[in-house]
Amino acid sequence: MPKAASIRVIGVVAAIVFFALTAATASAAAPYCPPDQDPEFVLGFAFMKSQLGDVMGEPLECEHPNPENGDTLQQTTTGLAFYRKATNTPTFTDGWNHWAWTADGMVQWTGDAIEPPPSFRDQYDAATITEFREMISDLGIIAKWQGPILLEVRGSPTAADIAEVDELIHEIGPLITRVAISRVQAGGNMAIYFIPRWQFSDYLDVVNPRAVGAAHPSWGLAFGEIGSAIVLVDYRLSLAARSKVLKHEVLHALGWIEHSLRPDSIMTPWLEGAIDWSPTDINLIRILYDDRITPGMTAADLTAIGLWVQSSLRTVAATTGIDGRVAAIRGTFAGTDWAISLAPAH
Questions:
Q1: Which letter does DSSP use for residue 203 in this model?
Q2: C-alpha of 100 from chain center
Q3: Whether 95 and 130 share a structural domain
Q4: Model pTM score
Q5: Helical pair 126-135 and 279-288, crossing angle rounded to 10 deg
Q6: Is 20 exposed, middle or buried (0-12, 13-18, 19+ CB in 10 A)?
Q7: What is the pLDDT of residues 279-325, one digit of tens each?
Q8: Structural domains of the chain, count
Q9: Last residue of a domain, one of 117, 139, 158
């Protein structure tokens, strides 16, 4: 064989060997893929990738079934994507952080659990969820505490008033489990004043002269995060009435901005009526202080996680007639502060 022809044959053989090795390497680098297919995200995993971006990384293998349960799996450069057949849920995890596309939109959680936490619709009835959208500001923005709440009682409280504050802390604590709440002698960030109502204007711009209580939370450095609050209670009321006003105004100070129209709620805008939190009131505070709800969330953010919030349901700064009675509601929402007062219905 001529030398030139021999060189060409050797070159062809070398090329064949090179491409064979390349194909073998590609096959070895892409498990569960057909010989002519590169790893890629498809269907639910492709949608997850579009939502998570770089967090999800790139596929290292093709999607393949788990024979034990019918799920499908796909290893990525940053974690594992898997489809839960039983719940029709595409999920991605990096081992500690988890994301899943559910009926309530994209849900994120951390920890060892591979299943997403229960949705709000699984945990609460429709009426409670509907009312949640009415308890936040008409701007549709979540305001809540993140750091410890230190209640400091000022003014002229009685021993019974102090006991009511301590009981309130005992009842509220389990509802806001990620935020510590306690009473301090000085240096508090939620000041509770037991004073006559004619002194309210010394602390807050409360226009309604008949108000027997008021609350004024202020945002801290972070958008939507309450950093301090003032609560006013008319000390001339009976102990039972002072207890109601205290509970009502502290809930406002925690981020329950609007009043409730439920007769069994302690958050109605009149002094008469319920004297304690109803089961729905308790659930609404649980929702507000759920880890999935963060300060500054908007109506769109809340809708994405299954809370159908809409803005401008009511305007707080108004006089509202309820069942033939006129309840004076005073509210301002300017910049980072707002104030709400509670008045008798007649």
A1: T
A2: 17
A3: no
A4: 0.67
A5: 60
A6: exposed
A7: 999 999 999 999 888 999 887 788 777 775 443 333 332 322 222 22
A8: 2
A9: 117
